[in-house]
Amino acid sequence: MVKIKAPAKINIFLEVTGKRPDGYHDLATVFARVGVGDELSLRRSVAPGIKLVLKGCAGLGLGKLSDNLVYKAAESFFKAFPVASGVHITLRKLLPVGAGLGGGSSDAASTLLGLCRLYGISRKANAEKLRRIAAGLGSDVPFFLLESRMAAATGRGEKLKVLRPRGKMPFVVVVYPGKPVYTEEAFGCLRLAPKPAIKRRLADFRGIIKHIENGNFPGVRGLLFNRLETVVLPLHKEVRLVKARLERAGADAVLMSGSGSAVFALAWKAGQARRIAAAAGCNSSYTVFLAKFC
């Protein structure tokens, strides 16, 4: 049996730079893994095929099992590698759906990584094949396949540059407001910013990368950015309220992650982070995670 964690991600920077002919959008973003997430268990099965079992209340409402990214990742793996396809996968779902935390993408990448371990497939020798499978499953999946703490991404999110932050890192408080925001809605309502504005933000993007590489994590108000806030905040009062609550609680920086609905706060001191998490936890409809970058 193989047990593997599927960590969440946050976007500490996200600009949408254009619309692609394939219907996707071009992005400039910085992904960062945080130490909360889902859990998977994989074991070989005598019976052929893929059996997927979901556990945890966050897994409710995920639809047909065959549409789940874990199932699709396993299908793609068995098509790509000549191994017997009998596998039993249990997914313990802790991350909310529609939160902008990359839960489904992380689950898919962890499935690929877990199946490589289960069947003795060399990740190094098959890195490009695995990367193509990941890219076919979703824009965020290749990042999680890296198992890197941070990466800068362009294209639709699949062109990655590993970032190796040094020095002290802040604590992360992630708050899900109890209602999802779906990626299709956020991008569907987005109007691209004027080219000069995008150009300025791309300069910020390069600046944040330099900060991280130089050991100066940009965890202060004003340096982080998410273009999708311009769409989601006006449409979703609950996301606005979470962001305002975290700002009032004394966070060093507050930003919506991805297309929402989760919002994260950064705090450089442990006591400060605990106070922010406690302030958010006063609302019983919120799900609050206190974590570190991992």
Description:
The protein has 9 helices and 11 strands. With 294 residues, the chain is an alpha+beta fold. It has 2 domains: 162 residues, Ribosomal Protein S5, domain 2; 122 residues, GHMP kinase, C-terminal domain (Alpha-Beta Plaits), CATH 3.30.70. Strands 1, 2, 3, 4, 5, 6 and 8 form a 7-stranded mixed sheet that branches. Strands 9-10-7-11 form a 4-stranded antiparallel sheet, covered by helices on one side. Strand 1 and strand 2 form a beta hairpin. The mean pLDDT is 94.
Give, in order, the helices and strands: EEEHEHHHEEEHHEHHEEHE
**Amount of beta strand:** 25-35%
Task: State the CATH architecture of the largest domain.
Answer: 2-Layer Sandwich
Describe the sheet with the most strands.
Answer: 7 strands, mixed
Distance between the termini: 24 Å
Number of domain modules: 2
Structural class: alpha+beta
